[in-house]
Amino acid sequence: MKEGINLHSIEYLKKERWFSYWYQFFEVTQCHPVKRVLEIGPGNQIVSSILRHMGYQVKTADYDEAAQPDYLIDVRKLSSVVHETFDVI
């Protein structure tokens, strides 16, 4: 994440971002059966938080520790570190 960006500010949470969130929820809910989700780049954790409230088991991966991911890693090295299976990434 870029330093100084407030991921919960109105400047960050523009209408287009909320559309993106909705499409992510929609896509996950259209895949069956899905229980386990890996979110790459969780940002402000809104998507992963809502998916958890919807009953999904969610893990996150990011290269920036400020995002507080479950897996702190460069996504290009994901398969060498993450040995869990997920229904949707």
Short description:
The chain has 89 residues and is α/β, with parallel strands linked by helices. It has three helices and three strands, in the order αβαββα.
Q: Mean of residue pLDDT?
A: 92
Number of helices: 3
Q: What is the general shape? A: flat
Q: What is the helix/strand order?
A: HEHEEH
Biggest sheet layout = 3 strands, parallel
Which structural class fits the helix and strand makeup? Answer: alpha/beta
Care to count the β-strands? Answer: 3
User: Which strand order do you get reading across the main beta sheet?
Assistant: 1-2-3
Distance between the termini: 20 Å
Question: Unreliable stretches, pLDDT < 50, 5 or more residues?
Answer: none
| Residue fraction in strands | 5-15%
Helix content: 25-40%
The Rg value, from CA coordinates, equals 13 Å
Task: Give your account of this protein's structure.
The chain is α/β, with parallel strands linked by helices and 89 residues long. The protein has helices at residues 15-30, 46-53, 78-81, and strands at 36-40, 57-62, 71-72. It has three helices and three strands, in the order H-E-H-E-E-H. A three-stranded parallel beta sheet has the order 1-2-3, with helices on one face. The model has no long low-confidence stretch (mean pLDDT 92).
Task: List the keywords.
89 residues, alpha/beta, 3-stranded parallel beta sheet, 3 helices
